[in-house]
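Posting this for the archive.
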Amino acid sequence: MPSVFIIIVNWNGLIDTIECIKSISNISYKYIRVVVIDNGSEKDENQELAVKFPDVITIRSEINLGFAGGSNVGIKYALKNDADYILLINNDTIVEKDFLGILVDEIKNDRHMGLAVPKINYYSDPSITWYAGGYFSKLRGAAVTIGQGKSENLIQENKYVTFATGCCLLIDRKVINDIGLLDEKYFLYLEDADFCLRAVKAGYKIKSIPHSKILHKVNASSSARYENLPLYYMTRNRLYFTKKSFPKYFGYVYAYILISMTIKSIYWFFKGEKDKILIVKKAFNDFKLNILGKMKES
């Protein structure tokens, strides 16, 4: 049976990571190795993980490499150790027992496939879907999710898609050999969209498989301390993603994002949320200066 290396990036999320690993330990597909990348957590959380899960491979990065960089550490380890498939999965997820076996069966029996993705439902309400496929909007400079907010019973058929979220993504090693690793210039957000688009352009199919299911604790890791980071990265990275992937549409997307953020900034101004205005301004300025990767403190 094909070997699957499961890559979990952990950043100050020990409790969620433990729950995720516990659910993975109960899955029916047993040809797996679990690799946890501690991505510069404030304390080395791998020490506790190594005690609780002696079979789990733990790798510590002293600095936060972002989702892309942390995942790449795990991907490189998996490739070096002859993984057939690599599963990227968020640490704030809980998996169903048969989710991985279903994904592996689909990807190994469909010669056109290079990536497979399960249906992802809300942990807070498993009857509601968070993700069931996606596609790209060239005019918005973003990936669009299918099925979000719908009853999970409404989405039951496999289908080819062009965007698969990095929240849980099974990748054939041949894809990485062909197109390379995740682009670390994103640091956080849209690195999965970039990877999927490169895979599609290289001729690989992505399939959404709704009978494979996991639960996602959406926004579980957010906090007041970091609440503006998604706004920064999504703004800057949409511009970078469009310029890199759809250069003919860049002028339109730049204007679209600028106008929409200007309207939002007026709203934030009257709400007294000037920090949001400043972070969006920084996102635009950093993009213009080609300052990518991890956000530099002003």
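Residues 141 and 242 are 5 Å apart (CA to CA). The radius of gyration is 19 Å.
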